[in-house]
Amino acid sequence: MGEVVNNDLLSSFEGRRVLITGHTGFKGSWLSFMLHESGADVLGYALPPDKEKSHFSLLGLSDKIHHVEADIRDAEKLDSCMKEFQPEFVFHLAAQALVRPSYQDPKTTFDTNITGSVNLLEAVRHCESVRSLVYITSDKCYENNNWVWGYRENDQLGGHDPYSASKAAAEIVFSAYTRSFFTDRKELGAASARAGNVIGGGDWSEDRIIPDCIRAIETGKPIQLRSPNATRPWQHVLEPLSGYLLLALRLRDEPRTYSNAWNFGPSSSEVCTVLEVAEHIVARMGRGEIKITDSDSNQHEAKLLQLNCDKARQILGWSPQWNVEKALNTTADWYKEISIGKDASDVSRQQIIEYFGQTI
Q: How many CA within 13 A on the CB side of residue 168?
């Protein structure tokens, strides 16, 4: 355990059994690390990290938690792990999480994000120890009409691209399971969570603005932007994760009240363009060049997307702590400190302590 355990929210998970799918990914590695630091007994179920240089690997998480390398599409394996571990809390993050690869391989995207989610729900259905399920999808599950206002939890689901459609479908599947099976389990709380674009240290995914900026800066190449005026609800990765954790506890304690859908995102005043994000990273890193380029394909990309998070603020009691400037500064600082040889665990731990030292 580390110093993080001093926070009331995180310390609530001390000694609790927590299963996380997708723990080798960007959000999953941050969640696994902070729960391990807080004394939780964590089992992660996911494919190996897709890059040698990953947040998961840098943190040495395979030696700190129960680490299972397996495919979410393997229903038998997942069910076996669930039954053997007997978790109290389950966080489902495993996914094919990028829009552009979903055009290249739509079948794998649908298989992973829909069938994989069915496998997870089946495993939960057959595991009586589970008291709280947080089922993470995406802000892209909404039918995007490029509105200037944020989408609410009861707005229409849909998706132009395979990734967005798969997340909308995963939400429909979840709704069917909760109404068909989970309502009979009076001590099980289950909710879906939808978050906007997250940023933070340790992300090296392709086709994400921060990793693209960092790769370009490290190699001395220009940062190439396809859609500089596109806006996104940028937030630091710790923001939605704090919401997931708070939601998980509320689901365990008051399952009937909180078992529905929840948005987690920044306020509308914190939305900014892709170009503004790149300019901020360049300024914070102290180097880099930006180049505006034409899109290299005719694939659809949403230009405007943001969430309305009034429900989480008013009912759950969650609100974001860091504005977009703080989120961008903290993200850039993580990469700067790693580049000069600082330990990823130390850097990540200090940022968690800084964030959770504030009132949630």
A: 17
